[in-house]
């Protein structure tokens, strides 16, 4: 575990929809990039170069600045065996670490239970956004899920009977994936604790003061909310949010849409880091940015379709910046049905964060032993 006087905190930003890894970490030095992207291609001169082979999308300037400071680890070719191109199934695998069956517990939910087995702090895990990510759901584990702190959060400020109705709607939303019984059981144990947590969170904005001007997009506002909670010192160890629902699913009009997504995301990450750094509160935070899968190597004329072999980012003061793993080959005979192969199992990435950053035993959380990386500084 990394030596730090404060409890380590993990922030997770999920890029929903399947971010195009090839146009995020661009292999501009490979002529096969241009061959496969006759239309949906970033020109060589625009690429923010990291070395002679790869570089960031030009919309990722703020993230590139953090990379140049040595605070960004880029995990190349992230994925898992036998990739699934369904948004829901692939994200379910990432959330539960169960590639062969539908999992009932999220990896972060298991980690929260390890850290706080008696659920003494209902705010050990907090999500910002719609619903609750499967990664945070586990029996006996309360997680507060909040829309916007400054509008008091979802399911709060309403009568008991109306809360029950809201929880029933929530259970029906999740029951097709894991079975209604499992969801109702989960909610019966944790629902009201989560609501209590949301009530406490409502105090965070009153303690927050910042010079950082975040954007008006939802990613920026959620990252601002995460900064508020972290700076409020409520004992929260896991903070989670999701980029706008399926926004990275760029089947058409990708060049402009993808650039705008990364402008917003890169700026939001940079603003968040600046915000907590100015308050001397960045030294115990690591941020993970991931997506459920990459996209096809060859464009479809306007965008890209579902693929595999993605890219993830880990950001923080205790991160040893740089490129990790090899960039998957673009050679036709090295592709997986037209997709990038994975080089790094995401469960190894999780294991690194769990053991080297959070000081937990990763094996029971991710379901086995996977090769770890060395991006966490001692």
Biggest sheet record: 9 strands, mixed
Strand content is 5-15%
Q: Which stretches are low in confidence, meaning pLDDT under 50 for 5 or more residues running?
A: 152-158
Number of domains: 1
Helix content: 25-40%
Number of strands: 12
Mean pLDDT reading: 90
Reported by name, the CATH topology is Alkaline Phosphatase, subunit A
Give the tags:
378 residues; alpha/beta; Alkaline Phosphatase, subunit A; nine-stranded mixed sheet; three-stranded antiparallel sheet; 10 helices; 12 strands
Descriptive overview:
The chain is an alpha/beta fold and 378 residues long. The protein has helices at residues 31-36, 61-68, 87-96, 107-115, 160-178, 180-201, 218-231, 254-278, 346-357, 363-366, and strands at residues 9-15, 25-26, 48-49, 55-56, 72-79, 125-128, 144-146, 238-242, 285-291, 310-316, 322-324, 344-345. The chain is built from ten helices and twelve strands. It is globular. 34% of the residues lie in helices and 14% in strands. The model is unreliable at 152-158 (pLDDT under 50). β3 (48-49) and β4 (55-56) form a beta hairpin.
